[in-house]
Write a structure and sequence with these properties.
The protein has about 650 residues and is of the alpha/beta class. It is built from 33 helices and 11 strands. It comes from Levilactobacillus suantsaiihabitans. Pfam families: FeoB_C, FeoB_Cyto, FeoB_N, Gate.
Length: about 650
């Protein structure tokens, strides 16, 4: 079986290319030492396996994610390398390409986004470029699926055998050090000449992963000369040699097709959406439009129709079937009143959630998300972070777990910790079902606006806490924020569909696992008491627990113990709150629950409760992610306590102050 390592800079279309080349792929655990998905795919109609590695700018890593690629080359040694580049940014991309070409494995260079290059009036002499680099070069556009068949055939036709690595004309002193070290490594440690040569270059280039590898394997030809290498600043000499090679190569292979007008569409749009004054209002407006689509125009009507089906025909049919087969009342109640009503009540929000995820996928595929990080950079600098920290927060709108994992891209440990701790304040999709219930009950005319206010309140709380952490952790200097702004693209329907499904399938999976289990648990607690099965829910375990805690929650406007019991199940997963309420109030779906709310809450107390749900203790999955990323249980425990205290104080302030005016 031939293994192909897929490597490239971020934003080169690497993931799209991977999805198009492979007919199926799977996540097979994580890379060793980091919580990064290990993704493998098989090229169609072949036994060739593609390993999708994290996007990197060079093999000298800054973050844990970036170290994955270098560790893979050191320890797994693929048969071939597919290097994906952005054709219109080839000068920068080739810094990584040179490191891969020096590795000594067959390399196929994919010039992706070739249409953008042509739109700029530029082309390359592919034959001359391939000759100078010593590898096959193919032009592709993964978004439009052009050039993929030729690339696939090139991969299948390339023999997976060691090839002559690229040799650059390094300065005499550098080359002498490389030659001396590599020869000793071949003689004393039986390494292949190509691998020894690559190790020596990377070691001289101060690649810390390679230096740790050398220490681990006691590679004395490198270790005993480390100080001499560093004193002579070989790293800078290597960089300048590579840069000169890239300039010479591109000068010799670049062809200019025509003059390009300065009126570039991307630049025109960016002058508006990234404007220092207009940028943030546009950002807010885009999110308001997303919520209007999700809660007013498309999502809610579809959700209402699905709820009517689940609570009506489906529930009635199941009830009739169970009656016809003679099911005992306890079992019938569990299935109809517990599982179908509870889980079905949550599933009825699938249209709203999928519409929201589709909107986020459109923003990602169009290229706007990178602009959102840039627009918020100035705001983030006020709290000691930068725009890179806002990217995990945006991702957290989908799921706090993935948002926390995305914080690994932040280089500074203190900034990474702060971002991890504030990520749970982002309103994830799991909270949408309970939002949907309350806005439908109390804020029908302003559903999108109320949900938007909760999202931005979460951001405000996160920024406030980040400012406090900046003072506590003594973060005095901001790191520099550099981000590549990709060209704008018309979103592709299949990419939007795939992105929406990838984000939304976790919600459906939870319905069959965590939500199902939580619903059954709360049904059992509400139907069992100290004396066994109860017919009066006020004598159940749920009532005992809720009534015990209820006095603490009265100051924030909560007057029913059922609400308290439902909130407790939210630590399992926030989606369970909705299903728990349906079960605890003995209702058949969201329509009945919405009607019940009118006798239990006022608009003010309802909003205070939503604020509490927004901020209070993260779910178990988020806590596990915090523990994994910080390597500490104390930060996970701290997150539970601090979030709940902040949630209570925020809800208390809103309800008590609001009561003075309403």
């Amino acid at each position: 079986m031939t293994t192909v390592a897929l490597l490239g800079n971020p934003n080169t279309g690497k993931t799209t290319l991977f999805n198009e080349l492979t007919d199926k792929y799977a996540y097979v655990g994580n890379w060793e030492g980091v919580t990064v998905d290990k993704k493998l795919g098989r090229i169609r109609h072949s036994e060739m396996v593609v390993v999708d590695l994290p996007g990197i700018y060079s093999l000298t890593p800054i973050t844990k994610d970036e170290a994955v690629a270098c560790n893979y080359l050191l320890n797994d040694s693929p048969d071939m390398i597919l290097n994906v580049t952005n054709a219109s940014q080839l000068k920068r991309n080739m810094l990584l390409s040179i490191e891969l070409l020096e590795f000594g494995r067959p390399v196929v260079l994919a010039l992706n986004m070739i249409d953008d290059l042509k739109a700029n009036g530029i082309s390359y002499d592919f034959a001359e470029l391939a000759k100078r680099l010593g590898c096959q070069v193919r032009a592709t556009n993964a978004r439009k699926k052009s050039g993929l068949d030729q690339l696939r055939q090139e991969l299948l036709a390339t023999p997976p055998t060691a090839t002559q690595p690229l040799h650059l004309a390094y300065p005499a002193a550098v080359q002498a050090a490389i030659t001396q070290a590599s020869q000793a490594l071949v003689t004393d440690y039986q390494l292949t000449p190509a691998f020894a040569n690559w190790l020596a270059i990377q070691y001289l280039n101060r690649n810390q992963i390679v230096r740790r590898y050398a220490n681990k394997h006691h590679l004395q030809p490198l270790l005993r000369h480390q100080q001499a290498y560093d004193d002579q600043n070989f790293e800078e000499q290597i960089f300048q040699t590579r840069l000169a090679f890239i300039d010479d190569t591109l000068t010799a292979t670049t062809k200019y097709l025509h003059e390009v007008s300065n009126a570039n569409l991307t630049a025109k749009i960016d002058r508006i959406v990234t404007h220092p004054v207009l940028g943030l209002p546009i950002f807010v407006g885009i999110f308001l439009l997303m919520f209007k689509l999700s809660f007013d125009w498309i999502g809610t009507p579809l959700s209402d129709g699905l709820d009517a089906f689940i609570s009506g025909p489906l529930s009635a049919t199941a009830n009739q079937f169970l009656t016809s087969i003679g099911a005992i009342p306890f079992l019938k109640s569990l299935i109809v009143d517990g599982i179908i009503a509870g889980v079905g009540g949550v599933l009825s929000f699938i249209p709203q959630i999928f519409v929201l995820f589709a909107c986020i996928s459109v923003l990602e595929d169009s290229g706007y998300m990178a602009r959102a990080a840039l627009v918020t950079d100035r705001l983030m600098q006020l709290i000691g972070l930068n725009g890179k920290a806002f990217i995990p927060l945006i991702i957290g709108f989908g799921c706090n777990v993935t948002g926390i994992m995305a914080a690994r891209t932040i280089e500074q440990p203190k900034e990474r910790l702060v971002t991890t701790l504030i990520s749970p304040f982002m309103s994830c999709s799991a909270r949408l079902p309970i939002y949907g219930l309350f806005v439908a009950a109390f804020f029908q005319r302003n559903q999108a606006l109320i949900v938007l206010s909760l999202y931005f309140l979460g951001i405000a709380v996160a920024l406030l806490m980040a400012k406090i952490y900046q003072w506590v952790f003594k973060i005095r200097e901001n790191t520099v924020f550099i981000i590549e702004l990709p060209k704008y693209h018309v979103p592709r329907p299949d990419i939007i569909a795939m992105g929406t499904w990838e984000k939304g399938k976790g919600f459906i999976r939870k319905a069959g696992t965590v939500i199902f289990g939580g619903t059954v648990l709360i049904w059992l607690l509400s139907n069992l008491g100290p004396r066994g099965i109860v017919t009066n829910i006020d004598q159940s375990f749920s009532a005992a627990i809720g009534q015990f805690v209820l006095p603490l929650f009265r100051p924030i406007g909560i007057t029913s113990w059922q609400t308290i019991s439902a909130l407790m199940t939210g630590v399992l997963a926030k989606e369970v709150i909705s299903s728990s309420m349906i079960v605890l109030f003995h209702l058949s779906g969201q329509t009945g629950l919405i009607a019940t709310f009118s006798s239990l809450f006022t608009p003010l107390s309802a909003y205070a409760l939503l604020v509490f749900i927004l901020i209070y203790a993260p779910c178990f999955a988020t806590l596990a992610a915090i523990k994994a990323e910080t390597n500490s249980k104390k930060w996970a425990l701290y997150s539970v306590v601090s979030s709940t205290v902040i949630a209570y104080l925020a809800a208390l302030l809103i309800y008590q102050v609001g009561s003075l005016f309403i």
